[in-house]
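#random but structural
TW: two for the price of one
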Amino acid sequence: MNIDGTAWRTIWLEPGGCSVGVIDQTQLPHRFTTRSLRTCEDAAEAIRSMVVRGAPLIGVTGAYGLMLALQQDPGDAALEAAFDQLNSTRPTAVNLRWALERVRDRVAALPQAGRVEAAREEAEAIAEEDVAMCEAIGNHGLEIFRQLAAARPAERRDSPFQVLTHCNAGWLATVDWGTALAPIYKAHRAGLNIHVWVDETRPRNQGASLTAFELGREGVPHTVVVDNAGGHLMQHGLVDAVIVGTDRTTRTGDVCNKIGTYLKALAAHDNGVPFYVALPASTIDWTLSDGLTAIPIEARSAEEVTHIQGRICSGTAAGEIATVQLTPDGSAGFNPAFDVTPARLVTALITERGVAPASEAGLRGLYGGADQS
């Protein structure tokens, strides 16, 4: 996607193919910097600290992390140790284990001398597949947006098509295009008059910092709102559709996404606003049927709740990035990173294979009847 007219992906092999470059998302939106990952430990820390984040991108980074591990030691024990190290970094997103298993399965039966190149090829394949899947999601979502825009009352058809999204499910969360934002980019490039309400997405503010950054660089009209404003906007007819991503989706259509998604789904349901979830096949966990009881919810540091990062606007330190405390000394914080939205609140799932009801029958209608686990 575009940053000031230059095309970027979020992750790439650096010259020589022995290290991996990534955009450091902890510095956005105020600084655009990149980082080199040279070891498995570098990759694991990048995932853990959210230098890279978003379920699809986490998976691709994990795949490259195994390649980096095999460069250090191509043996079986080192492969398994690296697999466990990377898999433990973020427990909720299923894409990570999926990608790690693909690389491990590809190299396990090979002689040690051929493992690094095979891991590199598999990681690159996963990255390219992610781009293709996200663009396909964008195409399917564009058709939904067109239909919804055309179905509005005649007096509203000349006004912007209003979309609300939560967290960041754009190209920064994938290799390119994104999941929930891919239909928005497709719509904007196709000339649809579209405007995006961007949830700030506390506590890490991925909406205010990352989604707004993306949309601004692409030239998509958008407005940042506080997380609690979504219901108010829907009550007053200012939202035509809600679209979000997901870190893990059960075979029955329950979706696990950034904390606060469930509340948006409830508000959408109460106000008759369609609520869509965009996802690639790699995000479906075919082993799970009940998202509420079976999906592990990552609990992150309470400091993400009690403190906030931003750019100093005045004084001698103007322009510097600083972390400040929001809460009184001694106040505890609790920071579940995700929540589960039950399938009954989801209008439809938008995948690379098409649009399906949020149900086991709907998903198997797209992906076949055989167990995909």
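TW: number two ↓
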Amino acid sequence: MKCKFCDRPAFIKLHYPRMYLCPEHFTEYFERKVKRTIERYRMIGPDERILVVVSGGKDSAVTAHVLKKLGYNVECLHINLGIGEYSAKSEEYAKRQCETLGVPLHIVRVRELLGKGIGEVRTRRPTCSYCGLTKRYIFNKFAHDNGFDAVATGHNLDDEASFILANLMNWNTQYLAKQGPVTPSQFNGKLVKKVKPLYELTEREVVAYALANGIEYEMEECPHAAGATTLEYKAILNGMEEKRPGTKINFVKGYLRKKALFETELEETELRECRTCGMPSNGEVCSFCRFWGLEEPIDFRIRG
């Protein structure tokens, strides 16, 4: 088959909208869609400093690549989780990705920072749970300490659809009330604005963009991700998408239209400053400082 817009051989068949595209026209389509997503949800402005959290994987690498190409002021942060060879390889990929882009890369290593890597803490809490807590705290405080206007993550349409479905299945209304393409800045800027530029693009499209543009990335899954329920929900949604193209985007857009239904049940919890680090907390000590047993705040300010 040939590209819809030229005579070159098709590189990808899009199922929604239905069309064949060559690498050049697919790249244009992808970048235009990211640009429209940013504008539709008023994610970021041209003068804002953006911190892209890069894992070494495809989604964050593509996010950094497209934002840089669209002219945004981008720097990157990689959080080395201390998970053996997996984390070592992920850091190397992140370094190469940022060198290719010509953007600054900042690296925080969890084992050096906190004494133990992810998976090495004796706790009843699931590994993925405290890993998420740790990553969110680090990238938010790093962004706050260094004056970034927004944090961009590589969450794509598949991630969002599976998250919504998982929380609907369990009626986690508080999570459903907070989900979306943009999380505004709160608590006098100590909770930095978070944005998801790939919000309306599927995982398949992200992989295709990386291939079309020669972006190398870590393909190995985190060892702790095996058996995660989100993978099961993704498989269900993929099966539905194959039968009815457009299922994922229509599901997510429908959720956004009805999100106010969940917001009415959101319990208003007054945030306060954590006694240890001064960051927003629901109690006297924030979840991060309590879990890691911190007695002094961590200073992420870039020096030199």
